[in-house]
Amino acid sequence: MSNGFENPYVPAFAKVVEVRNENSITKTFTMSMLNGEALRFRPGQFNIVSYFGVGESAFSICSNPEERNTFENTVRRVGRVTTALFNVKPGDVLGIRGPYGKPWPLEKAAGNDLILIAGGMGLAPLRPVIHYVARHRDLYGSVDLLYGARTPDDMIYTYEFESWRNIPNMRLYLTVDYVPQNVKWEHDVGVVTELLRYVKPRMRYTTVFVCGPEVMMKFTAQLLLRMGFYPSEVYLSLERRMKCGIGKCGHCQIGYKYVCKDGPVFNLEEIGLLPDVIE
Amino acid sequence: MVDKLKVGVFKLTSCSGCQMVLVHLEESLLEVLKHIDLKYFRMVSDDDLPNEPLDAALVEGAVTNEEEAAMLKKIRRLSRFLVATGACAATGGVNAMKNITPEGEVESIVYSSPEYVRSGKAFGLNEYVKVDAYLYGCPIDRNELVNTLMSLVLRVPPYIPGLTVCMECKMKGNECVFLTRREPCLGPVTVGGCGALCPSNNVACEGCRGVLKGTNVNGLVSAWEKAGVSPELIRIKLRKYTVYPVAGR
Amino acid sequence: MADRTIVYEYISRVEGQGSLEVTISGGEVVDAKLKIFEAPRFFEAFLRGRKALELPELTARICGICPIAHVITAAKAVENALEIALDEKTIALRKALALSGIMQSHALHVYFLAAPDFLGYPSAIAASKDLADVVRRGFRLKRVANMVSEYIGGRAVHPVTLTVGGFTKPPHADGLEKVHNALENALRDALETVKLVSGFNYPEFEPNHVNVALSSGDGYAITEGFAKASSGEYFESRDYRRYVSEEQVPHSNTKRSMFKNNSAFEVGPVSRFNLNYESLCNTAKEAAEKAGIKPPVKNPFKSTIVRAVEIVQAIEEMRSILGEGVSIPPPRKTRFRQSSGSALTEAPRGLLYHSYSIDRDGNVLNADIVTPTAHNSWRIERDVFELVPSVAHLDDESLKRLLGMLVRAYDPCISCSVHAFTVKLNRT
Amino acid sequence: MSFIIKREDIPHFSRHVISKGYTLFAPVKGEFKHSFKKIAENQVEDVSLDFVRTTMPPLKSLLIPPRETLLKIRNGKVEETLPDATSRTAILGVHPCDVNAMSLLERVYMDRPKDPYFEARRKSLLVIALNCKTADEYCFCTSFGTGPSLEEGFDLLLTDLGDRFLLETGSRKGAELISDFYMPRATSTDILEKDDTIRRVKGMIRRHVNTAGLQRIMIGALYNPIWNELAGMCTGCGACNMVCPTCFCFNMTDEPELDSGGTVRIRTWDGCLLWEYAEVALGGNFRRDLSARIRQFVNHKMNYWLNQYGSLGCVGCGRCIEQCPAGIDITRVVARLRGETP
Ligand SMILES: Cc1cc2nc3c(=O)[nH]c(=O)nc-3n(C[C@H](O)[C@H](O)[C@H](O)COP(=O)(O)OP(=O)(O)OC[C@H]3O[C@@H](n4cnc5c(N)ncnc54)[C@H](O)[C@@H]3O)c2cc1C
Ligand code: SF4
Ligand code: SF4
Ligand code: SF4
Fold first, then answer.
1. Do B100 and B195 sit in the same domain of this protein?
2. Model ipTM?
3. Does B248 fall in a domain?
4. Domain coverage including residue B222
5. Which domain holds residue A184?
6. B112 touches chain C (CB under 8 A)
């Protein structure tokens, strides 16, 4: 029974139209809303996906924000919901809530150079940024993507790298922690922060977006500050345990901030004084 | 439609109470069986030990001798997912109380010719094999059993919420047996899910569901000491269904 | 006829782990061993040094099938040691709890352990495809029994409310109506059950048994009374050891009980029925009559019918006890002193004995527990000796099946049979 | 408008409330303490307004039940299981701290997007509050202005004047309820007596939290060793989360619904003292140590609430102090952080 209250816990339905294997534990799901409407979102926002019978989980929306017919989530298998999603096939129906959260400040950054730093799965929320930049290339100066992963196999969206390299004034720098035998690798080996040596930032005119594992973000943030980047221009996308996505369940609080509604994107100035930011 | 989940129910040293909880699902059992193919359940069926691989094994009971250890290892090899079912399987349960008595002595208390009877110390399954999930309690909880089985049917790992018995006790609005009657209650450090059954019936929690990760047993013991609970009672409380890692006890 | 050995490894559809090994030579049984290889659990050993107040809770864990019987017997033994007398209402409520346990266990046995033999299925689950109604009825009866156990005991397996001196919490008046309705409906199912099992085809076999059961001047004895034997003896729990002795047998982890030093004896539903028929309520008597059984029932296979009749009895009695309301006083206070006490009650499978000595601080010094299956195990072996000659012509498979049915007729609960009593403590 | 209702007329008044179509909840005495129970018409004599310590479980359980079904998913359809907002529930005898706690919960749950389950229950709720006539060793509502008396947030308000209660109306809903219940008007002496009572109760309160500049002090104390010291005592049981009337966190899980073959999505109370609360994938945990979890609890109440919802998140009911098995006392923690006690 509906009492005329809008119920934010009720998911809408989306149909899976394509499943892509990114690597052995990561898949990308292309979905379209069953009601035919577009899922309008801005780069950096996330949605909450239901696998009925198992539960809900938050995932960054990782597709081109201007693509109206479909949207995408990339999922790494780590637990219950993500395991269930791994068994999903095209044609299956999932529940979707959202989009939620504050996006990357792309308007504010207009006119600036962009440095995008991603680790592993952290490339997912940055992919819409790249698509956006490609469409609105004139809005930004140079764009550098620094991407690190554990091994070459852990990288996602590798099939798009070529087209990203073709975006004018955009460069990709790749690195891995180690290269297994028999794997060909012509890029760097080492932590992602080392890739910063390739960029020559104009501090005042550069905005940095960072997303990746906590440790990686911690070291990256420290290094960026030491290099002289403005705390207000360094943005991180944080991950927390999250149940509701709408600032009720409490789980995602960091100090007085809710990751779900005040974030997940924060700049270093905002979170500088908060406890429990980094484990 | 995915294939039915192939499940075996096995028993080591135990009272069969956890298997009984499965039988006590009664009509719900018939619903569960729509999704599950019970390949082995000796208590109610003539089937022989399966040779084909199982999707999941529910293993009840503690390991108390080599035969059981060997049996358990065989079950492990056979099963994709192994659930330690009940306090005995999780921690050794009540069987482990004898572990503090020197070997041989317990046997001779019970049997006139103990040489015919073999038994070592009692341990939970994880002393011998990898355990994929736990069902806590002596006996296990019916709803958790259903949820676990249905999770396995969906091919996802089961989930038991990590809250304490004490929290469930509060949710029910019970009067605290520790604060009102000074009875040492293990609710504050025990994995919830039983609905705080014992405190709700005016009985202090005996900790049959084991210690919840992240709780502080030492803190609780100090609280008991401050409340005047005797050291002897504390010692007994800490060795029942679970042997608690408390320094100096 | 060639010598042969029949080994029934890991008897199925019994509660626990046991095997039967029979050696036949020239049509005669030369050896029959009911082996119990379930790992022993040493309750009597680790109960030493525990608190007497923990005994009901801990001894429940002897057996997950009949925990209620252990809880009640342990509490009674401690109460006897401390000379705590309970009020009538508490005693009645305990009996209702015990009856719910018996009803549950019998419904399980009749529908899920025994019936598959007579209906020709490996299990009731396998039968549920063809005989959904029958299986559902079995489950319904179990559910109602468990509902009563949960209502009074807080939980069906290992109840929590029963304590030395009474109950920690009286059952809540709110749930009473539901329980009554359920019991009323269950009566119909119970009568159907009697009808169902009286139609089974039972093997012919009428050995002479000594029956032993609890008896009392006051109703169908379950939790109160003295032991009575069909051979004429009467004894109280404190004299138990003068009548029943035990012997350890090398082939088994359980021990053999003997009545008056030499004879095998039978405990359980048939013994209760044979010795206390007059105390059954009219509904149960009528049901028995319709099913064509009257005391003395000699054929052990027909225990299945007796169980069905006892379900009727249990329902009627629970209804009357719970009908009178359930207001009971808080548990009696315990004051410890050096003492010992014992108790005998009727578990679903028959006579159960607990005996303890405790010190003045309420610590357990000594524990002695003998379960119904321990009482029956020698009787089962003797039955094998007596049954086989008449059926020795059967092939191994059929003989194995028949012997399996015979063992199951006693509903051996092997989990709890594994125990023994204190012989001596060899400290080295 | 104020009236007088005789003490012995409380059952009569309760019956009146029920006769108006309300489901009535009121405090009933248990073995040791009072708790809110549903009162049937033949149970009005059980209503007992003589309690000092606040009730258990806290009032929030009527607004966000400890376990609540949010959705049922059957045959590919999602059904909401919203409570009926047009139903009428009255709660009699709520203390001022709890009324204030309820309005704090409103800030969380009625903040956009609104929680429709909370909203429906809140809308159907009529609050008959009760000013405190005594305070005990745990109370410290005066520190936050959340008691021992109320100025707003109620539909009706009772004050115990010994042989009689002063009854004041606070809303149209409240006035309507008593429009046909005959009571004498209160006199100015009655009002004076009320003021006296409240002054007296204020004088009884022994515990305090000094809120002056508190937030600055809390921020400064984030790395104080006291959190480690508390972690040695705290059992990690989460009882404080459960009994606190302003703790609002929940977990959401799916459970199978066997007979329908569907699923229910439920929410259950959760708490920041639990290990799992801040755990993330692959073993990460942002509050791995108990010290970080206690710090979160205390700071949330005494610091973060202010930024999040405009006031501190504690109402001084003292439940967390009374119910903590380890005897941890939030007022002492704050006092020590302020350097007011050793
Ligand atoms: C804003 C945001 C964006 C995210 N984007 C992505 C993404 O694009 N791709 C991706 O693969 N993952 C993403 N995650 C992480 C993802 O939500 C979790 O990995 C997922 O919820 C785990 O769910 P599960 O049911 O499979 O795991 P569970 O079985 O629930 O648990 C496995 C582990 O994950 C932890 N966990 C449970 N719920 C969450 C949660 N909501 N967030 C984090 N950890 C949790 C548990 O504590 C446990 O340790 C994002 C998380 C957030 C908050
Ligand atoms: S009785 Fe036990 S579980 Fe309940 S509140 Fe007290 S300590 Fe916690
Ligand atoms: S309250 Fe404690 S002892 Fe009782 S069932 Fe729950 S975990 Fe076990
Ligand atoms: S923090 Fe403690 S005193 Fe404050 S409102 Fe919560 S429970 Fe009451």
1. no
2. 0.90
3. no
4. 165-240
5. 113-237
6. yes
What SS3 string covers C232-297?
A: CCEECHHHHHHHEEEEECCCCCCEEEEECCCECCECCHHHHHHHHHHHCCHHHHHHHHHHCCCCCC
A204: β partners:
none
Closest residue to atom 6 of ligand 2, CA basis: B176
* Whether C63 and B68 lie within 8 Å, measured CB to CB: no
D191, two tokens: 């009002």
Length of chain D, in residues: 342
Domain match, B132 and B186 both: no
The A-side interface with B (CB below 8 A) comprises 53-54, 79-81, 83-84, 87
- Interval between CA B90 and ligand 3 midpoint (Å): 15
pLDDT digits (tens, 9 = 90+) for D60-84: 999 999 999 999 999 888 999 998 8
Question: Which pTM value belongs to this model?
Answer: 0.91
Our mutation pick for probing the ligand 1 site, out of D280, D282, D285, counting the most ligand atoms within 8 A of Cβ, is D280
**Can you read off the two tokens belonging to residue C105?**
């266990």
A54 and A78 assigned to the same domain: yes
Cβ–Cβ below 8 Å for D231 and B172: no
CATH at residue B109: 3.40.50.700
The domain that contains A72 carries what CATH number? Answer: 2.40.30.10
Torsion of CA C204, C208, C212, C217, to 10 degrees: 90
- Which residue's structure tokens are 């009572």? D197
Residue at which a domain ends, from B153, B177, B196: B153
pLDDT in tens, chain A (279 residues): 344 458 999 999 999 999 999 999 999 999 999 988 888 999 999 999 999 999 999 999 999 999 889 999 999 999 999 999 999 999 999 999 989 999 999 999 888 999 999 999 999 999 999 999 999 999 999 999 999 999 999 999 999 999 999 999 999 999 999 999 888 889 889 899 999 889 888 888 999 999 999 888 888 988 888 888 888 899 999 988 999 999 999 999 888 889 999 989 999 888 876 666 765
Same domain flag for A81 and A126: no
Pairwise CA distance, residues D164 & A13, whole Å: 59
Distance CA A145, CA A117 (A): 6
Give pLDDT tens digits for D8-51: 999 999 999 999 999 999 999 877 778 888 999 999 999 999 88
Overall domain count for chain A: 2
Structural domains in chain C, sorted by start: 4-424 (1.10.645.10)
A44 domain residue, yes or no = yes
